[in-house]
Specification:
Radius of gyration: 23 Å
Shape: globular
Mean pLDDT: 88
Strand order of the largest sheet: 3-2-4-1-10-9-11
CATH class of the largest domain: Alpha Beta
Low-confidence stretches: 1-27, 345-353, 491-503
Helix content: 25-40%
Structural class: alpha+beta
Oligomer: single chain
Largest sheet: 7 strands, antiparallel
């Protein structure tokens, strides 16, 4: 049930996000984060630790956050729109989350609107007891399953794909909760990391390809699940291991059980965890993200050496790659763009005429670095390209003699369906323009991207076999590793609509 205060908070959030022109003109041209999950079992400060873990995972989703705790008798839920610190740093909120076990979630919406009923963890009372679930990723057959469930009488409270799993568990005829959960996982497709809290257990699960990350930690002998290792570091927890692809871990009193119900497949984690999504101080599958990003910059310098006076990162995500490029090329690294960290997406509601100020609200050219210089700008990716246009123009207005734009990843030419909010293909600059057309559109003297082979070399994968990719790299290659049932259904419906119009 949504309380009056929750409704007021939702109304305020929606009123401040309607008309986000200048700020979102920048944010809308970036890859949006997935979500982040966290869980801890049998610790006296479960809610506090979960809130701290979510703080560390805030980069994975800034639209909403939630925590569900269990005190041995009752489940308690607090879900809010906005940042973790806006709500869960308050003692009054934490006091409403008593208990020794808790799970939490930070959200960026890739499926479902940003409204309170979509905020996770979702919770339901089943005949086996309480069931709370948080999900990172995207299910590519959720709409198909949703239609089937509704036809069979299911009543949905949200538009989130995660609720499909809740209904599948609820309708299962299996006796044990873990068996119900496994049965539900067998019916879904796509990418996922789940954390589940029941009356007696904390459960974690990863999709069969391991597209979405999930790690196990330990604090004072109590087990933790988290999307990234940085969430363990903030609370002083010890990293135990990654949850394997296709693995389910069941944490109960004094024990952790591993279940592997799916046929074994080679792991294909998402390449964008290394390029953009994970925090630089995280370690993903044994690879320090910061070092990998520097290696991508070094590979870019080997592939495309530019005659330049300074290497300038587009902050913050371009910084490690720019360091690597500068180290390899010998060109000095300089902070030629300064980021304002105190501007949020809802800071201002500008008119259409003020749209061009959007980049400057978050980024300003450092004139003393750019003036009269040949600048090598380093960024992690280009999506629509609209922000790149303004960054290049900003550097020229600061007096840069030449602006060379170098991207530490290949061109993004294909949309994502696994939890990254990418535009449709016709909105992706690399899908609709040649390299030279992209350069002219952006306005740079040079435009270059790191190759697919360069990415794999930076990851330590040499001798790449394109027939057997080691990572989920479909945004570059168009090689989608799972079925896209809902997408196929949309195509069929679109074709039927066209036929109806013709007839």
């Amino acid at each position: 049930m949504i309380t009056g205060s929750e409704l007021d908070a939702e109304a305020t959030f929606r009123s401040t996000t309607n008309g986000r022109l200048a700020i979102d003109d920048f944010d809308g041209d970036r890859l949006r984060e997935h979500c982040g999950v966290f869980g801890i079992f049998n610790h006296p400060d479960a809610a506090v630790i979960t809130a701290l873990g979510l703080h560390a995972l805030q980069h994975r989703g800034q639209e909403a956050a939630g925590i569900v705790s269990f005190d041995g008798r009752r489940f308690h839920s607090e879900r809010r729109l906005g940042l973790v610190g806006d709500h869960f740093s308050r003692e009054s909120t934490i006091k409403r989350l008593p208990g020794h076990s808790a799970i939490g979630h930070v959200r960026y919406a890739t499926t479902g609107e940003t409204i309170l009923r979509n905020v996770q963890p979702l919770f339901a009372e089943l005949n086996t007891g309480g069931f709370a679930v948080g999900h990172n990723g995207n299910l590519t057959n959720a709409q198909s399953l949703r239609r089937e469930l509704i036809e069979e009488g299911a009543i949905f409270q949200s538009t989130s794909d995660t609720e499909v799993v809740l209904h599948l568990v609820a309708r299962s005829r299996k006796h044990r909760l873990i068996d119900r959960f496994i049965e539900a996982l067998r019916m879904i497709e796509g990418a996922y990391s789940f954390v589940v809290l029941s009356n007696k257990k904390l459960i974690g699960a990863r999709d069969p390809l391991g597209i979405r990350p999930l790690v196990i930690g330990e604090l004072e002998g109590k087990h933790i699940l988290a999307s990234e290792t940085c969430a363990l570091d903030i609370i002083g927890a010890r990293f135990v291991r990654d949850v394997e692809n296709g693995e389910i871990v069941v944490i109960s009193e004094g024990a952790i059980e591993s279940i592997k119900p799916f046929p074994r497949q080679p792991m294909r984690p998402c390449i964008f965890e290394y390029i953009y999504f994970s925090r630089p101080d995280s370690v993903v599958h044994g690879r320090p993200v910061y070092e990998v990003r520097k290696a991508m910059g070094r590979e870019l310098a080997r592939e495309r050496r530019i005659e330049a006076d300074v290497v300038v990162p587009v902050p913050d995500s371009g910084v490690p790659a720019a360091i690597g490029y500068a180290q390899e090329s010998g060109i000095p690294f300089e902070l030629g763009i300064i980021r304002n960290h105190y501007v949020g997406r809802t800071f201002i509601q500008p008119t259409q005429s003020a749209r061009d100020f959007g980049v400057r609200l978050k980024h300003s050219a450092n004139r003393c670095v750019a003036a009269g210089k040949r600048v090598a700008l380093i960024d992690d990716s280009i999506v629509r390209g609209t922000t790149s246009v303004k960054i290049v123009r900003m550097m020229r207005e600061a007096g840069a003699r030449e602006v060379h734009f170098l991207i530490a990843s290949p061109p993004i030419a294909h949309p994502d369906y696994y939890g990254i909010d990418t535009p449709q293909k016709d909105k992706l600059l690399a899908a609709t323009h040649s390299l030279e057309e992209m350069r002219r559109y952006i306005g740079s003297d040079t435009l270059a991207f790191l190759s697919i082979d360069g990415i794999y070399r930076a990851m330590g994968e040499t001798g790449r076999d394109p027939r057997r990719p080691q990572f989920t790299d479909h945004c570059f290659t168009g090689d989608y590793p799972t079925q896209l049932t809902d997408l196929a259904g949309e195509r069929v419906m679109a074709q039927l609509s066209l036929l109806a119009e013709v007839s």
